Amino acid sequence: MFYRENGQFKTSYTADAQIFPILQDRLFVIAMLLAAFVLVPLWGSDYLLRALLIPFLILALAALGLNVLVGYCGQISLGTGAFMAVGAYAAYNLMARLPGMPLLLALLLAGLIAAAVGMLFGLPSLRIRGLYLAVATLAAQFLADWVFSHVAWLTMGSASGSVTAPRLDVFGLAIEGPVRKYLLCLTLLCIVALAVKNLVRARKGREWMATRDMDVAASVIGISPVRAKLSAFGVSSFVAGIAGALWAFVHLGSWEPAAFNIDMSFKLLFMIIIGGLGSVMGSFFGAAFIVLLPIALNRLPAMVGLQLSTSLVSHLELMVFGALIVFFLIVEPHGLARLWITAKNKLRVWPFPH
Amino acid sequence: MGFLLETLIAGLMAGVLYALIALGFVLIYKASGVFNFAQGAMVLFAALTMARLQDHMPWPLAFLLAFGLMVVLAWLIERLVLRHLVNQSGVALLMATLGIAYFLEGLGQLVWGDDIYRIDLGLPKQPTVVLSGLIPGGLLLSREDLIATLAAALLVALLTLFFQKSDVGRALRAVADDHQAAQSIGIPLSRMWVIVWSIAGLVALVTGMIWGSKLGVQFSLSLIALKGLPVVILGGLTSVPGAIVGGLIVGLGEKLAEVYLGPMLGGGIESWFAYLLALGFLLLRPQGLFGERIIDRV
Amino acid sequence: MTFHPSLRAAALALALTGALPTPSVQAATAEQFFPVLVYRTGPYGPNGVPWANGYVDYLKMLNARDGGINGVKITFEECETGYATDRGVECYERLKGKGPTGASVFQPLSTGVTFALTEKAPKDKIPLITAGYGRSESQDGAVFKWNYPLLGSYWTAADIIMQDIIKREGGAAKLRGKKIALVYHDSPYGKEPIAMLEERAKMHGFTLDKLPVTAPGVEQKATWLQVRRDRPDYVLLWGWGVMNSTALKEAIATAYPLDHMYGVWWSGAEPDVKDVGADAKGYRALAMQYGSGIGRVQQDILKQVYDKNQGTGPRDTVGQVLYNRGVYSAILAVEGVRRAQEQYGKKPMSGEQVRWGLENLDLNEAALKRLGVDGQLRTLRTTCENHLGSSWARVQTWDGAKWVMSPEWYDADMQIIKPMVQQAAARYAKERDITPRDCAREASGA
Predict the structure, then answer these.
(1) Using a CB-CB distance cutoff of 8 angstroms, which residues of chain C are in contact with residue B116?
(2) Residue B153 pLDDT more than 80?
């Protein structure tokens, strides 16, 4: 009743190929964007922006990148943290070594470098599949951890392997304070999300999905598995690289290789599985869930007036986190994105059951 | 010469322990198609249980009780998790075991405490020197490591025998080959799963005892399972001999690399060397050394 | 209509988190808020717990005994970082706005978190205390206005260990041609002393073997094989958590003489040797001023907090090495506030005011007596250019059952450290576009 597409006719191919073919969806997305770009910066508190929204936006970006690889192309990776680290250190080196390097260009180049590294580590995917590949991508993870803490050249000779982000400027505007940082991340996320959405709806996306569903069959109908898999690794690592650079520059400000360790890789994989594999929306849901859950769990006892010790809370947090993951996998294996669709369908037929 | 031998021995001893961890992964993967990331958390949980029970009773009794708890845990995992995830993709199952891992880490520390505890098996800590007549300076061997290695090797041998010869072992192999066919000839799938997870629990307990008596029982025990991963893919996810041979290769390769290659590269290369080694092998044999051949059917 | 079960869970989760960004609307009472960043779980939990207990117990004791700081009641909140940088940053963001004046001083308790917060704290005008850890060059207050590595840094630690070795050898000249191995946690923490040790190696002509151990350090066989091969004259241990006890056990298993092994102050507490027991006899570790024991301040804590059953941890852990270090860290934070109150009035202090307090801290013998730490801490005095305050340390030896303090005090050799600090700080200032403060002028102007 709230959400009916009756009477909306598509009279041209362009109209049929829109991302949001239904008016209500378009209105909803516009409202969300307005809220995100205008209302949040106006009324969002410092804490909301810095501790919740900025990490959420950056992790959503990284999850989106991983989702291209895992959700669309079916190649499992446990090494996303490594590609984020490559992006972060590449951007750092570009900014530090080339004076006058604009931030956006540095981010772009960092993404490209990450993409190159990603494709290199994607090469085994041509031979190895499934869980073997997943464990093999851990090689990228541990190698990156080591390289960035041992090759002094990459950290400009920092003895301790930890480096500090430079001053951030976009078109002469200093990116300082939570609002500007938030807007930078939001803008980049929107651009990348739009690009990825279009990519997966286009020829490339179909190739990826065909490879995911059955790569032998895909190659029989003329899709080159080499190109499909490597391009997925490339695009995925490109996005992850940008996310890594943002995580380092904007969120942490100063970081060490451990900021992109295996926990980060697992966390991103959780996001897309809980959010929904092969869904752009799912990456956002998953990121929101994983960012908010620990904070919510941490605050819950205090909110209901329970005084628990920190260690008790952290242990409970681990337990609830684990239990929720299992719970979600059991009741909704397709992730939160599927719930979103279910909810939309319910709204469409309400108040009738069918 | 003496030093090279010592390095080789240290590598082999580490290799046997890795093989033990890898065996935990392989058993579960074979029988239920689950890549069990919770193996590490199970090690921690089992070791914590054993260490805390040992305060009140002699260690063999504590061992039995801890094993009993691991069986209960296996039953619960089958009941509450695996049963509901039949026919899910490999990644979803892997994620579920990560969920179990978090849960167990939290539960273990919540129930048993988060300090460092001691499992005292009365093993000798001081090293001993052997073969001093043959090699100048002799060979320095840690007696504790030696006993631990023997215990691990014994367990590995027993499990292999059990898997190959006993009725339950045969049934398990049938389940591993084809779930549906096994079920149709009357093998109860869910009971098999409980058995295999219990065995993995036993492996976890022994791993926890060996490492726990060495490192002290604490949270970090859950991280040693990561050492088993390259072993598993090197040897093949479905192969028991693969786990053993893979463990030895990784143990040897890792120690040799760190000792001889490490100083040139700046050290600490152990963490990734095993993975690169495994990756190299995989490029030659994508199913691992002893894994089942992957046949694609369209 | 019926909801899908997981839809309900999602709605619940949303409802919970919806109420999250609680704006800190609090009555403007006379309260001073202390954020407490801790790690009570994870690989480093066993070491993090006693520190956190000591910190919190001291604050509780002050409230019980004195009713706070000059009548300003103390409130605090713990936040679990798990020794992870991103969680530390999240904790910082969460806690910095709490209390009537916001968080007025942070203690990151991790070198990684310190590096991240060094960038954030100046913008929020909140000082950082990193007692015995953090960035070594941050003792230069002209550049690092908001960092306070009070009581010592890793450079002073490395320097003092070298002094003890020189003394044992009977003169610096005896070090020529010797070999010293550094077994370190492969992280910013473990790498901090390298610069200092390399400087000393150049001065005295010994060789430095660097042996990194990948965190958390459960597998060190290869490292100790190298120690066995190279037979260094001394081994310095820069570990944390499980790495320490594992290193000691591997040292025993490779028959390395433990009395030639030195730990930094984070490698010399009860959890590190507890599991090794008598076998670790002879192992030496640095003690940051004071090791374990119960003095007047700990007695007060026992009386005011534990006798009322409000202790944070078990009673018998009071007075342990890391527990005491937590107490001293809390004392330093509180004294910063107290000093600020002398200047700005007896009310809750802001971060900026506490920074002034920390920079003008003067804990003389009388102050130490008042605090109940006479005989435990030495006098400490900070200035604009010296944020270290004091760099005394002693060496303690594990006798198989307890730590035994040797009576000598060592002070770090500033002639070596100062130029290194200045160089590193100047580099940082250039990188970050910071104009160093003119301390001489500030002193005369103020």
Answers:
(1) 46, 242, 245, 271, 274-275
(2) yes
